[in-house]
Specification:
The complex is a heterodimer. By secondary structure, chain A is mostly beta strands. Chain A has no helices and 12 strands. In chain A, the strands form 3 sheets. In chain A, strands 2, 5, 6, 10, 11 and 12 form a 6-stranded mixed β-sheet that branches. In chain A, β8 and β9 form a beta hairpin. Chain A starts with a strand and ends with a strand. By secondary structure, chain B is mainly beta. Chain B is 0% helix and 56% strand. The chains are: A mainly beta, B mainly beta. At the A-B interface, β5, β6, β10 and β11 of A face β4, β5, β9 and β10 of B.
């Protein structure tokens, strides 16, 4: 079974600075997909960024980028120029390339990101 | 707003009660999901539906009974729950069941079993 580990229960960063959230996963699959979801205090979870394992190029979405190290099974999220609106729980998630999607997402426990003004 | 709504937002029920959670998506998606979010634990996938057909049941106790009458609505019927079932129940939808699809989550129903 796949597992996703987020070793940082909580992180704090000054506004406008950069922060990196770590995520590691365990799988025997070679093709899979990785995601970072954000859950603000309002509780509606939204997708931040995603990565296809067969692509070596790291995904980027504006201030958000990932450092995907397939051999190390590591998928960290970097947030540049942190803003107060970035404060949330961040979940790393994995999905196998099953061809049918029936496995859903496997989530980590989450990292609570605090932005200090 | 993600286009996925859930009602009620909060629910307190006794162990002998029967209640239902409702999820509705306004996105024209074909796949819907139920997740359970407990404190200090990762989100757990409970059920997956595609075009109103259940495609996954992740060893969920029978006291949880899903229903998907059409591709826009998903219910979770609850009966004789246990206190450990108290959690945030999240509904999600995606265009299809493809693995790289973004899932759109509802705000959740905070369930407390007394």
């Amino acid at each position: 079974a796949q597992t996703v580990t987020q070793s940082q229960p909580e992180m704090s960063v000054q506004e406008a600075e950069t922060v990196t959230l770590s995520c590691t996963y365990d799988t025997s699959e070679s093709d899979y997909y990785l995601f970072w979801y954000k859950q603000p205090p309002s509780r509606q979870m939204i997708l931040v960024i995603r990565q296809e394992a067969y692509k070596q190029q790291n995904a980027t979405e504006n201030r958000f980028s990932v450092n995907f190290q397939k051999a190390a099974k590591s998928f960290s999220l970097k947030i540049s120029d942190s803003q107060l609106g970035d404060a949330a729980m961040y979940f790393c998630a994995y999905r196998t390339d099953s061809g049918g999607g029936a496995d859903g997402l496997t989530f980590g426990k989450g990292t609570h990101l605090i932005i200090q003004p | 707003e993600t286009g996925v709504t859930q009602t009620p937002r909060h629910l307190v029920m006794g162990m002998t009660n029967k209640k239902s959670l409702k999820c509705e998506q306004h996105l024209g998606h074909n796949a819907m999901y139920w997740y359970k979010q407990s404190a200090k634990k990762p989100l757990e996938l409970m059920f997956v539906y595609s075009l109103e057909e259940r495609v996954e049941n992740n060893s969920v106790p029978s006291r949880f009974s899903p229903e998907c009458p059409n591709s826009s609505h998903l219910f979770l019927h609850l009966h004789t729950l246990q206190p450990e079932d108290s959690a945030l129940y999240l509904c999600a939808s995606s265009q299809d069941l493809w693995d790289f699809e973004e899932q759109y989550f509802g705000p959740g129903t905070r369930l407390t079993v007394t």
